[in-house]
Amino acid sequence: MAPRREVAESCLEFLYIELVQSYERKDAECAEKGDGRASRAALESIGFQVGQQLAERYTIDRARFADHLEVIKFICKEFWSEIFRKQVDHLKTNRHRALFVLQDDRFRWLRHLSLPAEQTSNTEAVAKYLVFPCGLIKGALSSFGVNCEVTAEISEDARKPTQCSFEVRIK
Amino acid sequence: MEKINAELFTLTYGSTVRQLLIDNEENVDAVNVQLDKMGYNIGIRLVDEFLAKSSGARCRDFKEAAEMIAKHGLKMFLGVTASVSNWNADNTECSLIMDDNPMVDFVELPEQYSNLSYCNMLCGVFRGALEMVNMRVECWYVRDLLRGDDVFEMRLKLLEVTAESYNDED
């Protein structure tokens, strides 16, 4: 394996923002032909592949996980720290452990987005930037055999613009 | 400048190229164009960060700009440097030579993609960034590590110096 090397974090930010925006432009072009949703799948798929590859790299020397909860805890701690440089702040689950909510109070990938001034449209403006990280989480989980859907929501509290929750629904 | 482990960036770039190949039904030429376009959009945004973080950096001409990219720009963002050589007689065309680039770590191109210019996004970045400092350029690869060459050689050609839109002489 190649030695760990570093690049500027902004390389990733620029690439990721451009990905979202270029697919948005593509959607706008396709919307005229009645097919304006393809980009969501493409962005999720890019994230999925990256998540899968990273999860494999991060767990090479690790024993297998005993259950879903253990996998989710790994995602909240090690995986999150590697990628988003902090751990998930709150983890919630339902009684059957088929639904997990991962809340990050300062989601790193939202901190440099310049959003439109009017607060009401922020939720939608931000949502498109969360498709890629959702794919990333889904890909990582799938590499541990956890088949799921991942969606994200941002906080409606204007004082917490980077607070964000990821909902993992096990299939 | 905050740094991250390169592998996250490298894998994201790779996954992007792969998705563009799917989106364009394996049409390699279309992917090359798309990568360049995306790079251009990035370049016009990235130049601000570069100028802000490299305080005092001014390029009086194309020759200085090429050196600035090779020695400082690439270093700041990708952690590598390039050498500038093969200038033409009137200093409007040169080569940036890199023997390493984190974008291609873990990458091998299957034979059917031999015309894919995998790192073409970087050409677009240079084009976009230079346009923001009033230099319209063309940029392309003449040698490519992934296509069997021993280094990356990017050719940079100045097409036009556009007029300054403001006066910063004094």
Describe the protein.
The complex is a heterodimer of chains A (171) and B (170). Chain A has 171 residues and is of the alpha+beta class. Chain A has helices at residues 9-31, 38-58, 68-84, 122-127, 131-143, and strands at residues 6-8, 90-93, 99-104, 148-154, 164-170. Chain A has one domain (10-170): Muramoyl-pentapeptide Carboxypeptidase, domain 2. The model of chain B has no long low-confidence stretch (mean pLDDT 93). Chain B starts with a strand and ends in a 9-residue tail after the last strand. In chain B, strands 2-3-5-4 form a four-stranded antiparallel sheet, with helices on one face. The A-B interface holds A 2, 4-12, 14-19, 21-22, 42, 45-47, 49-50, 53-54, 57, 82-83, 85 and B 1-9, 11-13, 15-16, 18-19, 22-23, 34, 37-38, 41-42, 45-46, 49, 76-79, 102, 105-106. Strand 1 (6-8) of chain A pairs antiparallel with strand 1 of chain B, so a sheet runs across the interface.
Distance between the termini of chain A: 34 Å
CA-atom Rg of chain B in angstroms: 16 Å
Query: Helix/strand-derived class of chain A?
Result: alpha+beta
Strand content of chain A is 15-25%
Strand numbers in spatial order across the main sheet of chain B? 2-3-5-4
CATH architecture of chain B: 2-Layer Sandwich
- The separation of the N and C termini of chain B measures 30 Å
Structural class of chain B: alpha+beta
Indicate the overall shape of chain A.
Answer: globular
Overall pLDDT of chain B: 93
**Major sheet of chain A: order of its strands?**
2-3-5-4
Total strands of chain A: 5
Label this structure with key terms.
heterodimer, A: 171 residues, alpha+beta, Muramoyl-pentapeptide Carboxypeptidase, domain 2, 4-stranded antiparallel sheet, 5 helices, 5 strands, 47% helix, globular, B: 170 residues, 4 helices
Structure described in brief:
Chain A is 47% helix and 16% strand.
What is the topological layout?
The complex is a heterodimer of chains A (171) and B (170).
Chain A: E1 6-8, H1 9-31, H2 38-58, H3 68-84, E2 90-93, E3 99-104, H4 122-127, H5 131-143, E4 148-154, E5 164-170
Antiparallel strand pairs in A: 2-3, 3-5, 4-5
Helix pairs in contact in A: 1-2, 2-5
Chain B: E1 3-5, H1 6-23, H2 28-53, H3 62-78, E2 83-85, E3 93-98, H4 120-132, E4 135-143, E5 152-161
Antiparallel strand pairs in B: 2-3, 3-5, 4-5
Helix pairs in contact in B: 2-4
